[in-house]
Every structure is written in structure tokens, then in C-alpha cells.
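Worked Example 4.2. Consider the chain below.
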Amino acid sequence: MTEGKYIILLVEDEADLRGLLAKKLDKAGFEVHQAENGQKGLELAKRIMPDLIICDVVMPEKDGNYLLKELKKTEFGQYTPFVILTARPKMRDYFEVVGVDDFIEKPVKGGEFIERIQKILLERGEQIKLKRQKVLSSKRNSASQGSIESEYSEELSKTEIFKKDKKNSLEISQERKDVHDADKKQGRDYPVRRTILVIENDPFILKNLRSLLIRRNYDVAVSCSHEECLKAVSNLVPDVIITKNALPQIRGEQLASRLKRIPALRNVPIIIYSKIIERNSAYDDDGQYTITDEGEDLLGTVIKLMDSIR
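Applying the procedure from the previous section yields the following C-alpha cells:
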């Protein structure tokens, strides 16, 4: 890495566009590395650990969606800013659910393009540097590192909600009820909205499950991994947690067990599922899905649990 420069990985199969954007980034003071498809982009990313990745979606061999998913499995890829570059605006909703940092449509406007990249790095620059140091330190001491279990426990121990004996969910739910009762006495009979935290790594299922729950008047928070779940519960005590069983790196049962160790979540119901929605078409076709029998049972269980909290 050139001293003081941010490293950017540009993944784009159109050679002319890739060259043009690389020149603009270089002129703006970035260290730029290039790859023509998702597979080569992944290999290069693992070697150079970039500070930010700009990636096309549709490419030969492996596409941008493949690169994003594979990166999320790596330690450095979980925090590396990821910017989508595509001529397919319909894919915006999908990638917003996945959680990319920006979505830039082609044709690219040079000045705006650089400004948006600079904005991301300005906002997350210090975080990127700290995480990079952590990853490099981890690599140097890899022989002494524990399993995924110990890594998870380490992250859990850092979570503020785990360190402090905060109010449990029953107390918080009672507070909500007290506020609701006070409003009712004054003639303001508002329904008490319940919060559900959903953990699901398939963006299609996550998007549609969230929509189903919102239509039933629930507040819905989402996480795509157990790491994101930890961040979510540090600021939120949901009424119910719904998690997929086959999550990357950890099973749903294991995640539930860890969450129950957090004082504020001890009394929060956790529902674990395997297959609740079947995809009928491509990611960018809205509404094309079928709820399985298990999915219907899940929704029924959620409604019963929410009713019991009143």
C-alpha cells in the first residue's frame, strides 16, 4: 500500500469503463487495483485487503453478487465498504436489503462518482484502519486463535448489553404497556406496536419475510448474520427474535443459546425455522414467492406470541 493512500479494488468486466474509472480514482489519490470478474476479484481482495470495493453485477465466470457473498464469509470482508456499479436499476432494492454501502447506476458521472466514494471513506475511514490492524494482528497470531465459537464469545463479551445487567424484555414490554394504558386513560387509544428481529442471510427471503411482518403492523429489524445480530441487540431489545437455522458459521440453535446469555434477552422468545419461503423467480422480480407450510406456521406462532405479550 502506498503510504497514506486508501486501497480500492475495482471489479468490472468492461475493459474501457474499468480503465476510465481506474484513471479517475488514481487521479483522486487512491491506490487502484483491477479485476475483470468476481472470481478474480475475490482472489485479489484476499491478497490486498482493500479499503473499499467497487463492483459490477453482471460479469462472466462469477458475478458481483457472488463476490459480495464470499467476502462476507471473510473477517476483513465483513467490514469492507462495498459499492455496486450496474446498469440495472431494478436491482437496487435487492442490494439495499443485502446492505451494500452505495448503489451507482451506469452511465457513471465522473465527478459524482468520486464524491460518493470519498464520502464513504470519509465516514468510515478510521473504522477501516482499526479493523485492518485487527485483521493483520489476527493473521500474525493465527496459531493461537480459537474456533468460531471463541471468536463469537469474544465479540459477545464486547457487547455493552452483555456487560451490563439491563432491563429484561418483560420489564420493557411492561413499560410499553404502561405508556399505552396512560394514553388510553387520556383518550388516546393507540395500539402497542411490537418489534421483531429477523436474522436471515438470504436477501430474497429476508425482504419478503420483512414485508409479510410489516403488513401485520409489526416493527421489523433485520440482520444478515450473527455479527449484525450482535450489533442490533446492543441497541434494541425486541419482543420476538426469528432466526434461520442454517446461518453461515453458526447454527440457529447455537445463536439462540448465545443470545439467551445476554441478560436483556433471557425472556425474549426465539423462533428457529428452516424453510419458510420458496423463490419462484429471479431476485429482481418483486413478489414472486410462495409461503411454505412451515412459513404459515411461523406467522401463526408469531401472532400468538405477540398476543400473549399484551
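The chain is about 45% helix and 15% strand. Residues 57 and 64 are 4 Å apart (CA to CA). Compare this with Example 4.1 before moving on.
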